[in-house]
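As a warm-up, study this chain.
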Amino acid sequence: MQTLQIIKMPQISNLRLLISSANHPRILSPLTPKPPPSLSHLFRLKQPKSHTHNPRFLFAAFSSYSRKPRNIEQPSSLRRRSSSKADNKGKMAMEEKGPTAESVGFNKRRAEGKDKNDGKKNLQLKVRKLNPVNTISYVQILGTGMDTQDTAPSVLLFFDKQRFIFNAGEGLQRFCTEHKIKLSKIDHIFLSRVCSETAGGLPGLLLTLAGMGEEGMSVNLWGPSDLKYLVDAMKSFIPNAAMVHARSFGPTVGSVDVSTASSGTSDDLYVPINDEVVKISAVLLRPRYSKVSDTTKEGSSELDDPLVGVNHLAENHLVRRMHSTAEFALKPGDLSVVYICELPEIKGKFDPKKAAALGLRPGPKYRELQLGNSVQSDRQDIMVHPSDVLGPSVPGPIVLVVDCPTPSHLQELSSIHSLTPYYSYPSEESKEMCKKVDCVIHLSPASVTCSTEYQQWMSRFGEAQHIMAGHQPKNIEIPILKSSARIASRLNYLCPQFFPAPGFWSLPQLKSLSSVSKTPSEFSSCQVTAENLLKFHLRPYAQLGLDRSGIPEITSRPKIIEELISEIPEISDASERITQMLHDNNVTNGGSATMQANKVMIEEPWLHETALPSCLKGVTREDVEIVLLGTGSSQPSKYRNVSSIFVNLFSKGSILLDCGEGTLGQLKRRFGIEGADEAVKGLRCIWISHIHADHHTGLARILALQRDLLNETPHEPLIVVGPRQLKRFLDAYQKLEDLDMQFLDCRHTTEASLKTFESTGDKDVSESACVPSDQKNGSTLFAKGSRMESYWKRPGSPVDAAAAFPLLKTLKEILREAGLEALISFPVIHCPQAYGAVLKAADRTNSTGKKIPGWKIVYSGDTRPCPELVEASRGATVLIHEATFEDGMVEEAIARNHSTTQEAIEVGDSAGAYRIILTHFSQRYPKIPVFDETHMHKTCIAFDMMSVNLADLPMLPRVLPYLKLLFRDEMIADESDDIEAATAAI
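Now compare it with the structure written out below.
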């Protein structure tokens, strides 16, 4: 049986007492002897001359006396214990079942990357028994970008026993979760292009499928030949490459040896799927460029076609320009695909009278004839053939999925001979030769589909139904995530200062923007705008055509608020109280407003005042704002996206701390489409805590967008700071599309490394210079030479410190321009190379010439409580700490190397943090986590889109009672297989 090695550490509440008594040597004298060897290697900290006055030494010494590490079997109690909570009907107050005074520990095997949940599974593709006579079949629009316009839509091809998905952009999982579409039923995923827009949600989806059940699941992945680059990149962080059963088709990209299913010209027809249920063919599109003068240099990326704008450069960068009739070298991202889905012909209606006349008895032979098989007559010595008893057959429905991303691809699309059989011709003679297309789903952008050339090409399909799914502006006011939008509206009504209204443009405003593609004033009768869950029925044949019955209804904000007031009448008074309380705080900046606020707020005896830090005196609303873009763990859910924190420095730019899937969509929900573009352009740096997918898989989409937005603007590539493993992913992914970034290892941004960098100046540096000797000799949590050194080890070459030196200089200058003194990484206990971060603002001078210290924001990343985190959080203005589990789930927290709510608060209290924001909640808690308010006097629960301005920090904990009121009737979700699978990966 798999065991977990649990390392025990002292309860932090005990630590607080020790630290507070640091100036009393008599109290601490029992801790001064040399620690026993059992755990001393774990926290080897540099010991000053006077041990008794160093809190870091106190933590190390005290933890050394805890019990020795021991192996224990994974208890069954690690599974969620929900019955007692569910029976409580969602009450927030709970019994004291938190960690006892015994210990706080961590799972050493998981921290080293050896936990069974990180191990390899021999994932097998599921073999399903197909149903050749499908009773139901349709295509359906899933997750089209709608209000955020940030990702390509997906298309579901549904059969009784088979499911196919075309494209898997960011947010697909979240959308399917909300609408109860089981992705576990998916057999094949097809990509129309290989880029962040069409495949951003693929890594998270594969990990979710792999974590389902005991054995996990896998799917077939298909795409053009540059799919190889995406698969290679995903292997750097997806533990089991076997989960990616990827097959590609088409010509080799560049000179790289890409394995293809077949070879040929761009006009070849590839057939990935051909069974009794469906035949799926693929036609490749390559961009075709206008003829250029002989003086044009080979390799130029300038495009003659003015229609190819910034939004299309990602698909065409670095393409070699040649004559229009000549071949050119394909680059990754050039290839696009048209998929043709053909259902088998529909057999004619079975005539039982004819069958009886031919000597057949009713029974199984009737079924065989309907399946197209001949049978022996029961009463006559003859063979009965299907044509003897069936009426005339009807050709099977045909659906095309078309992705033509640029006008350059359109030139190729118009001339592809493989599509000729699917065009409709007016003459009766030619009509017999062509295949009738019933539906064409256009993933092409509106800038292409609105062109005269594209409209003419569409007309070749006669009366086929055209579904326009390429970011139609008409959908700008329709939220793609209805449940999340509803919660956001309720929170905004209660407390607009912490939960601002979404930044969307209305449709009239949007039409006035020059940057938005215009659509025809009227579609023809055969063209409709795609909407989420719009269906086109293929079978039964009698229902062939559009079905709008499943499209989500649009609920207006006034309607949502009306329902809220009806449900919780006292919420109106609560909203007014919060408004008055925050107004008083703004007037006095947290000073004398206390007594006024207390007159109107809910009485909570545990709320008491904390002295206002000097860094907040005179702070303005234009200094810094913390926007919690994603506050859930493991995988996106209906109400919470995965981890991402946007630190808005306003005119000085911004910084992202983690960048989980869907981060761009969240930015657009918060700031609007154009506002999000400005936010992405203003990014100074992106910092990633660790390699788990819920913390970094939105990175490529953000980087690709910034690359396009700044394409014609002189700029330095964005610096991404992250663990060394992340560089492997980015290096591999950049073979697919240029991300215009520079990478800096977190190891080179630790406090010790930065001090060495400062002392080195412009001198030549080596690896030993950027990784200081005190680090090497064991002065940090993951000390070189100790057993914990294995946490650092990973195949591949380490980042060259000499290359890091100029990047550190660049980063220092970027931070200085942003008004920041430092961005510091520190190791934490979660998985190999996991970090937390410190953002420290530069000191400032007020109007009287007095020096005001800069604020300090600390982000824990994912971690167990550990001394490095306590030390880094000392004196923090804001500590943003993960609180994945409720207090009663300590064993689960230890097994997963996460923290409980109380443990997170204890870290902040021990370090003297002014305010604590709890985030990264398990998906067990769909709307609000379980918490015990008795120890939350300086703490608040985070929600997606919550925006905390430094000027509002004094009032932050006072909002908590009102949030409790808003969610007072919410039940804790019962555990499901999906949640169980989700928690296995966090």
